[in-house]
Design brief:
By secondary structure, the chain is mainly alpha-helical. The protein folds into 2 domains: about 5-65, lambda repressor-like DNA-binding domains (434 Repressor (Amino-terminal Domain)); about 75-145, Arc Repressor Mutant, subunit A (Orthogonal Bundle), CATH 1.10.10. The chain contains 10 helices and 2 strands. It has a two-stranded antiparallel sheet.
């Protein structure tokens, strides 16, 4: 099974658990989510971008990490790793980080952690973000450092 098909299966399962048809999704979203597009994501016929995945997860009321496939064998080096992101710098750091900002907002919502300028990203979330942004956790940390949004010493 391809990665896109795995993501699609997860999207379909989440939609069905909520008792929604594809037409319900289109109707409830007032046309933001077209039934044909969501269906193509679910079948794995169309790749979903990181920002759209975060938006669709938000529409369904789930964390983006719930949509992402999970490795059967988590990498221990990633699980214990955490970083700190300066949220005030993410907003001005360009389109590349739009999905990161939405993911961080989702984490804040889950934690009930609002109006803070710094956010600690745990190892599992770092790995999920790396998957969304199609990179490795180490490369993502380097990119965040280069973009000036990573709090050094974290």
């Amino acid at each position: 099974m391809s990665y896109a098909e795995d993501v699609g299966n997860r999207l379909r399962r989440i939609r069905l658990q909520q008792g929604l048809s594809l037409q319900d999704v289109e109707r409830t979203s007032e046309g933001v989510w077209k039934a044909a597009v969501v269906g193509s994501y679910e079948r794995g016929d169309r790749n979903i971008s990181a920002s759209r995945l975060c938006e669709l997860a938000e529409f369904y009321g789930v964390s983006p990490s719930e949509v992402l496939p999970q490795d059967d064998a988590p990498r221990p080096t990633d699980r214990g790793r955490s970083i700190v992101i300066d949220l005030t710098k993410v907003d001005g750091s360009g389109e590349r980080w739009r999905g990161l900002r939405r993911y961080c907002e989702s984490i804040q919502l889950q934690r009930g952690d609002y109006n803070r300028q710094l956010l600690s990203i745990r190892g599992d979330d770092l790995r999920a973000l790396a998957i969304i942004l199609e990179t490795s956790p180490d490369s993502l940390v380097d990119e965040l450092r280069d973009a000036g949004v990573l709090v050094e010493g974290s």
